[in-house]
Specification:
Blueprint (H helix, E strand, L loop, with lengths): L3 H8 L7 H9 L6 H17 L2 E2 H7 L4 H13 L3 E4 L3 E4 L1 H24 L5 H9 L4 H16 L1 H11 L2
């Protein structure tokens, strides 16, 4: 019979796969700034329900002026990440969608990990700060550890005991 630790090791075999998104991001790393990544992530996130997003919506979601959002979206359009049409309609290209998907998954993994650590007040800020600098290897490790802790709640209980010692 396997120990809980041995059984937990089996969880580690499931890797976070965003190879295509990560490759595209790496290819464009010299071009894409952190701000551009934030826009792509938000456009992707919003497009999941609507299929597109408007300039005024993206400016509200990111708390920026519509003129700033327009300039950034024009840059992303020049890079082939979005299709930007008159009257503010933005849709992702295939490449933009793949990178956007990776960026959203990266955000969700970091946020889930930080939640497990008990980060609450500054969760969004901490996630935003970490997501632009983390390597895919570290991201995979955070994802694996998060899944392991979620599968074995006793690990989180032990962690919480350590925090309150």
């Amino acid at each position: 019979m396997k120990s809980e630790a041995e059984a937990g090791c089996e969880v580690m075999q499931n890797k976070f796969h965003t190879v295509r998104g990560y490759q595209l991001l790496e290819q464009n790393k010299k071009i894409l700034t952190s701000a551009m990544e934030d826009y792509l992530e938000m456009i992707y996130r919003y497009s999941l329900t609507e299929g597109y997003v408007r300039i005024n919506t993206i400016s509200e979601l990111l708390n920026v002026q519509a003129s700033s959002a327009t300039k950034m979206v024009q840059k992303l359009s020049e890079l082939g990440m979005v299709d930007y049409k008159k009257y503010g309609i933005i849709s992702l290209t295939e490449t933009g969608s793949e990178i956007g998907k990776f960026l959203l998954q990266r955000h969700q993994i970091i946020e889930s990990f930080l939640r497990l650590l008990g980060v609450t007040d500054s969760l969004l800020i901490e996630t935003e700060l970490m997501e632009h600098t983390i390597s895919v290897d570290t991201l995979n490790r955070l994802h694996d550890l998060t899944k392991l802790i979620e599968k074995y709640p006793c690990l989180k209980e032990e962690y919480n005991k350590l925090l309150h010692q």
